[in-house]
Amino acid sequence: MNSITARRRRHPLARLAVVALALGLLGGGYAAAAPSDSTADAAVASGKADDVAEGRSLFVAHCASCHGISAEGTSMGPTLVGVGAAAVDFQVSSGRMPAADPSAQAPRKPLGEWVTPEAVRQLAAYVQTLGGGPTIPTKEMVSGGDAAKGGELFRANCIQCHNFVGAGGALTYGKYAPDLNESTPEQIYEAMATGPQAMPVFNDSVVKPENKADIIAYITQVRGQVDPGGFGLGRIGPVTEGLVVWVAGLSFMSLAAIWITAKKRKRTSK
C-alpha cells in the first residue's frame, strides 16, 4: 500500500502540476503588483474614470481633424499617443491648442468658449489612456520650492532661451522662447516635463521634481519684483539697454552740435 502511494506521489504529472501552479502564482502576483495601463487606471492618474468618454467626444469634435480620429497623427498634427495628460493640459489651458493655423510655433491666445477646466481635465484623461505619459502635476508638486536654488538651476538651463527673468527670446526658423509671465506654476512644470514646441524635455532624470518646484519658485518670485532703476525696458537685458543708451547718446550729441553751430552762426551774423 505504501509503495503504491509513493508511486502515485512520484508520478511525472504531479511535477508538471506543481510547476504550472508555481508559474500561475508567480504570474498572478506580478500582474497584481505591476502598474496597470488600463483605461480606468490611466484616467484616475489624470482625472476621473468617467471623464474618458467625455474627453473622447471633445477630442473628436475639436482635435481629430489635425491629430486623426484615433490620435495617431496626420500631416497637420503629430501623434498624441504617449504624450500624456500634462501635454494636453499645457497646450489647451494656455490656448495654444487647438491651433488657429499651422505656423512655426503655436502662440498663447485667449481660450475658446468650450475650453473650461472641466473640459481640459476630461480631454487630458482621454489622451492619458492612449499610451500613458506625464500626468498633470498637483499643487504640492509646484509649490514650496527654494527660489535661490531655483535661480541657479534656471541660469544653468533656461536663460539661453528664456532670458534671465523669463522674458523670452527669439530662436531660429521663426520659433521663439515664450514669455513666462503669464504661465501658471502648473504650466511651467508641464513644459519642463513634456518639452513643447522647440523646448527640450527636462524629465525627472534631468531635473528632479523638487528642483522643478525650485525653478517655479524663482520664476514666480522674479516676475513679481519691481524695477528699482525705473523703466524695465522689457527686461530683456543689454540689447534694449544698449539701444536706449545709443539712441539717447546720439540724440544728445546731435542736439549739442546743432546748438553749438547755431550759436556760432549767431555770433558771425553780428
Descriptive terms for the model:
elongated, single chain, 12 helices, 270 residues, two-stranded antiparallel sheet, mainly alpha
Order of SSEs: HHHHHHHHHEEHHH
> How many helices does DSSP assign?
12
**Main structural class:** mainly alpha
pLDDT averaged residue by residue: 83
Name the helicity range.
40-55%
β-strand number? 2
Task: Give the CA-CA distance, first to last residue.
Answer: 147 Å
Strand content: under 5%
**What general outline do the C-alpha atoms trace?**
elongated
Strand order of the main beta sheet, please? 1-2
Which residues sit in consecutive blocks of at least 5 with pLDDT less than 50?
34-47
- Radius of gyration, in Å, reads 30 Å
- How can the largest sheet be summarized? 2 strands, antiparallel
Structure description:
The protein is built from twelve helices and two strands. It is mainly alpha-helical. Helix 6 (84-93) runs antiparallel to helix 7 and helix 6 packs across helix 10. The radius of gyration is 30 Å and the shape is elongated. The termini are far apart.
Structure in a nutshell:
This protein has 270 residues and is mainly alpha-helical. It contains twelve helices and two strands; from the N terminus they run H-H-H-H-H-H-H-H-H-E-E-H-H-H.
